[in-house]
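### Sample
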Amino acid sequence: MSSYRSADPTRTYYVYNAAWSFLSALAFTLNLVYYVRDAGLDPLQMVLVGTTLELTCFLFEIPTGIVADLYSRRRSIVIGFVLIGAGLLLQGLVPVFLAILAAQVLWGIGYTFTSGADQAWITDEIGTERAGRVFVRTQQFQLAAKIAGTVTAGGLGLISLPLPMVISGAGMMLLALLLAVFMREQNFHRTPREERETFRHMAETFRHGLEVARRRPVVRTLVLISLIGGLSSEAFDRLWSVKILTFTFPELFGTSDPAFWFTVLALIGTLLSLGTSVALDRLSPQRLSATHPTGILATFALLQIVGVVGFALSGSLWPALAAMWLNTIAGTLSYPIESAWLNRHVDSRSRATVISMVSQANAVGQVVGGPPLGAVGRSSLRAALLASGLILTPIPLLFLRTRVPLSGNKTAHTAT
């Protein structure tokens, strides 16, 4: 089967990320409506669904990252998409609370198999210097595919709410099969079977990842920023829709149904992010691939704070939407730049593990920060949202304080 694996890695990365983004939008555009209407979940059950997913990601993020570093990035990604597809199929075919909880476990474990492994794979295959540009371009493909997936989900949802979820689950499994056949992995060197002592190597890889996170300023800073972001994001991600629903929607095409408007809002936010990404890529590409992009990342972080705080304080629909879109655009643009920056400061030996550590820090933040802010939101929605924005205030300063000299790059890549 290896003879089929001749596809260009960069092109493979673009196609698979676009497919992943399309299928994700297909599955999750209407999933909250499905939870309420078809599965009949109450608010507490909906929170428990999210908590189950976050805890699953937290528990499995680093172990699955170690698997990718020891055995195969490609195999880890393929396993991940099989599990994600199984979770989506279970969730769409069985509209029962316990089945949906089980689906979150499958989906969460599957996601952690892909998290970090895909970035580590493409960085190994094309090198750290090219990876930054590829990450930015990938973001644009993902946004375009997300638009297509959102529109498709809306059309299929008019027929049946679980239909887009079921099709997405089958599509994820098909994607896993295609990647198993065509995805080549030439620059990853797994531990030989005769030398492999699984638990010892896992422990060594984990210790090496911790050492990288401790010694290298960029990695240490991004772990801390990910933790702070998680402390803020859980409450905002769950409460923004509650605030939006307190406003009266105007009538468009003969309807003011919130479900219709939520689809429209998602499309507008994605289109704005895509347009801004393309414009920034053309006007200032050197900033997007800078060796130390601290200035632009600090700017995006500041814009996110303005967006969240502005949203919390807004008293009418359109200012609130403008603030929300500002936060979305800034976060969307910063992600590929952060990813490229992190990958430049991690060697292949523990790349997937370190990326997983950054993701796990975010999950810890969400689990710790979500419930207290949710409790605040019971008495004051504005106070909870405002607190979410204020929690982010250290991030721009953390970016600006992380100054790594050019000569430090070589040291960073050789230190153990």
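The chain has 18 helices and no strands. This sample (DHA3 family tetracycline resistance protein-like MFS transporter) is used throughout the tutorial notebook.
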